[in-house]
């Protein structure tokens, strides 16, 4: 089954790839790896802001991480990389804006990780880091970046 068919089966529509908020490119393809810059969470066209352990619940944070994962996929498509070329999601890095006593960053990051498993199956299983940070760009609650192995066109 193609990845686009799988997305349709899952009821997923990719968002429009967001423009960079500073001086960088969203995706760099080099030596068979797509390095996707950190993506912020947009739900219903609105940036999810706030801090886990303060104004954002674990469920909202997990949904925000999933939204970041969707934006990673959208950025690949926006860079002209067909999702069927994805050989493996190699690594995700999840940054969670959280209070100093919040320790469920891995649970928040599962929102993006489980999306990759659902979309790519075993090829979506990846290494990962999930860290708490005091602030993220634009006040975002979560940011996720990725390294993805891509087959030649």
What is the secondary structure topology, with strand pairs?
Layout lengths: L2 H7 L17 E4 L2 E7 L2 E2 L2 E2 L10 H21 L7 E12 L7 H16 L6 E7 L8 E9 L3
What does this structure look like?
With 153 residues, this protein is an alpha+beta fold. It has one domain: 2-Layer Sandwich (60s Ribosomal Protein L30, Chain: A), CATH 3.30.1330.40. The protein is 29% helix and 28% strand. The strands form two sheets. The protein has a five-stranded mixed beta sheet with strand order 1-2-7-5-6. Strand 3 and strand 4 form a beta hairpin. Helix 2 packs across helix 3. The longest helix has 21 residues. The chain is globular and about 45 Å long. It starts with a helix and ends with a strand.
User: How are the strands ordered across the major sheet?
Assistant: 1-2-7-5-6
Beta fraction:
25-35%
- Mean of residue pLDDT values: 97
Radius of gyration: 15 Å
> In total, how many domains does the architecture comprise?
1
Instruction: Look at the structure and name the CATH superfamily.
Output: RutC-like
The separation of the N and C termini measures 18 Å
**Biggest β-sheet: count, sense, barrel?**
5 strands, mixed
Which shape, going by the Cα principal axes? globular
- What is the CATH top level name? Alpha Beta
Q: Which fold name is given in CATH as the topology?
A: 60s Ribosomal Protein L30, Chain: A
Instruction: Identify the CATH architecture.
Output: 2-Layer Sandwich
Structural class label = alpha+beta
What sequence of helices (H) and strands (E) makes up the elements? Answer: HEEEEHEHEE
Helicity level, as a percent range? 25-40%
- By DSSP, the count of extended strands is 7
Unreliable spans: none
Please report the number of helical segments.
3
């Amino acid at each position: 089954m193609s990845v686009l068919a799988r997305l349709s089966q899952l009821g997923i529509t990719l968002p429009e790839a967001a423009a960079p908020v500073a001086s960088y490119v969203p995706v760099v393809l080099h030596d068979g790896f797509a390095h996707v810059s950190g993506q912020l969470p947009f739900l219903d066209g609105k940036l999810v802001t706030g801090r886990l352990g303060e104004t954002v619940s674990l469920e909202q944070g997990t949904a925000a991480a999933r939204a970041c994962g969707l934006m990673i996929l959208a950025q690949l498509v926006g860079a002209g990389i067909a999702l069927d070329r994805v050989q493996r999601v190699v690594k995700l890095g999840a940054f969670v804006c959280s209070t100093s006593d919040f320790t469920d960053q891995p649970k928040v990051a599962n929102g993006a990780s489980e999306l990759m498993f659902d979309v790519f199956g075993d090829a979506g299983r990846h290494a990962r880091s999930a860290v708490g940070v005091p602030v993220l760009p634009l006040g975002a609650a979560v940011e996720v970046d990725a390294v993805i192995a891509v087959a030649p066109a």
